[in-house]
Design a protein that fits this description.
Pfam families: DUF433 (PF04255). This is Asr2958 protein. By secondary structure, the protein is of the alpha+beta class. The chain has a single domain, classed as Winged helix-like DNA-binding domain superfamily/Winged helix DNA-binding domain (Arc Repressor Mutant, subunit A). The chain has 3 helices and 3 strands. The protein is globular.
Length: about 100
């Protein structure tokens, strides 16, 4: 069964298992949110990122930051449903 495609922020952030190994991307392009966040954390300016990725607009970079913030505080469901943890069962044998 193929996982469904997810989108957030009116489709500006998309998650598709067929694109970038299911990492969140910007509008389905092969530009990951992680890539943009790494540029920002390295001190790159928005203008420099936009020159490196001409298909992006300023709002895409702001959306990456908003997505990361919302993800951090747990506003989005996990990418894949987690399985319930199985409890260990112990058997005590008395002789």
């Amino acid at each position: 069964m193929k996982p469904e495609k997810l989108s957030y922020f009116n489709g500006n952030i998309t998650i598709d298992s067929d694109v970038c190994n299911g990492k969140p991307t910007i509008r389905g392009q092969r530009i990951t949110v992680q890539t943009i966040l790494e540029f920002l954390s390295a001190g790159e300016s928005t203008e420099k990122i936009l020159r490196a990725y001409p298909t992006l607009i300023k709002e895409d970079i702001q959306t990456c930051l908003a997505f990361a913030t919302q993800l951090r505080v747990g506003c989005f469901p996990p990418k894949t449903p987690s399985k319930p943890k199985q409890k260990n069962k112990f058997v005590i044998i008395i002789i």
